[in-house]
Design brief:
Elements lengths: L1 H62 L5 H16 L7 H4 L13 E9 L2 E11 L4 E6 L5 E2 L2 E2 L3 H5 L1 H12 L5 E6 H10 L3 E5 L3 E7 L5 E6 L2 E5 L1 H9 L6 H21 L6 H13 L1 E3 L3 H11 L3 E7 L6 E5 L5 E5 L5 H11 L1
Parallel strand pairs: 1-6, 3-12
Antiparallel strand pairs: 1-2, 2-3, 4-5, 6-11, 7-10, 8-9, 13-14
Length: 351
């Protein structure tokens, strides 16, 4: 009886051991099955999401039919060049086959450049590019010039960029193909992004009425001679007018544009494709323009080594005279009642 009891207990223990093993195996199999099922679920969701995104991309490519394959390839190649750090950005044309903008020998390619201060466009400049002469002629239009009964510096805020292009055509005889509007902060950021600019100050400026942005005034002083300007100082140099004149200011603005171009070309920035791309991205984010990122790269590759011609400013010393309108505003008008002489002068400048 004792032995039978021992055998019964042994059988019972063996049975429980077997059951425990069975439970462990089943649990392991269940766990593996659960993990596998979870994997299949994640894979299914991922595949479905991927299919959706693929369909969205296909749909987007179909809708944007005007976006050429070569432009997509160009953008990818530009990123590769940025990583490579080419020794000269002008080599982009050879490295990534940047399309060169072509203009017929009888025409120029023209960009209207505007600088805004609040609602007013106090800097108005036409950059006329001549591929035959390899020149970029900067022509400044004074902000007080009256066009269609209003000062031209009011037109952009009231009527927009297309109207400003029409006004530029009425004055100069040249219809700008593109435009760029830069506010004061964007100007500061651009100059600082390239490490400042170098200018030669012909005569010291001492302006006790420079707007401080708080409704009051501060004093701006800069010595004569070679000067290195950061963004904030370059802006003051380009805007100051109380101790000089609007026409002098226009010439200084052209000087800063030339200095900015020279700095980009001569500095080590041209050897850092990534830095150039970052600067261009920042510029396009902080300005109003109809020039795309790709166009900016293209123009730089095509025109970056052209000679910039400055000193072309419409003033009361050449084709304008000063007067006052019916509201007592100081304005400028063409000497002969129309812009015929100005058109001839501009044609001689750009061609």
């Amino acid at each position: 009886m004792h032995d039978d009891q021992l055998y019964a207990e042994y059988d019972s223990a063996a049975e429980w051991h077997f059951k425990l093993q069975s439970i462990a195996v089943v649990s392991l199999i269940t766990a593996i099955a659960s993990v596998f099922a979870a994997f299949l679920y994640v894979f299914s969701v991922f595949s479905t999401d991927l299919d959706k995104k693929s369909m969205q991309v296909d749909s987007l490519v179909t809708e944007v039919g005007e976006l050429k394959d070569e432009n997509l390839t160009l953008y990818q190649e530009l990123e590769e060049v940025a990583d490579m750090g080419e020794a000269n950005l002008f080599r982009y044309e050879k490295v990534v086959s940047v399309p060169v903008v072509t203009v017929s020998s009888e025409e120029t390619f023209d960009i209207l450049i505007m600088g805004t201060h609040g609602t007013l466009t106090d800097t108005i400049m036409l950059a006329s590019i001549n591929p035959d002469l390899k020149t970029i002629s900067l022509i400044s239009i004074p902000r007080d010039l009256s066009v269609n009964g209003r000062k031209i510096n009011e037109h952009y805020n009231l009527y927009g960029s297309d109207y400003m292009k029409e006004a530029a055509y009425e004055i100069t005889g040249i219809m700008p193909e593109k435009y760029v509007v830069i506010d004061m902060q964007a100007f500061i950021d651009i100059v600082d992004a390239v490490g400042g600019v170098d200018v030669y100050v012909d005569k010291a400026i001492y302006d006790t009425l420079y707007p401080n942005g708080k409704g009051g005034y501060s004093t701006f002083y800069i010595e004569a001679g070679e000067q290195h300007l950061d963004g904030a100082t370059a802006l003051k140099y380009a805007r100051s007018r109380e101790s000089t004149s609007d026409f002098d200011r226009a010439e200084r603005q052209q000087e800063v544009v030339l200095a900015l171009k020279d700095k980009v070309v001569s500095s080590g920035l041209v050897g850092d494709g990534s830095a150039i791309l970052d600067i261009l991205s920042s510029v396009l984010e902080n300005v109003d323009t109809d020039i795309s990122f790709i166009d900016t790269i293209t123009y730089y590759a095509s025109y970056g080594n052209y000679t910039v011609e400055t000193g072309n400013v419409l003033t009361t010393s050449n084709y304008l005279y000063s007067t006052y309108n019916m509201y007592g505003q100081y304005i400028l008008l063409p000497d002969v009642g129309d812009y015929g002489e100005v058109w001839e002068w501009v044609e001689g400048v750009v061609r």
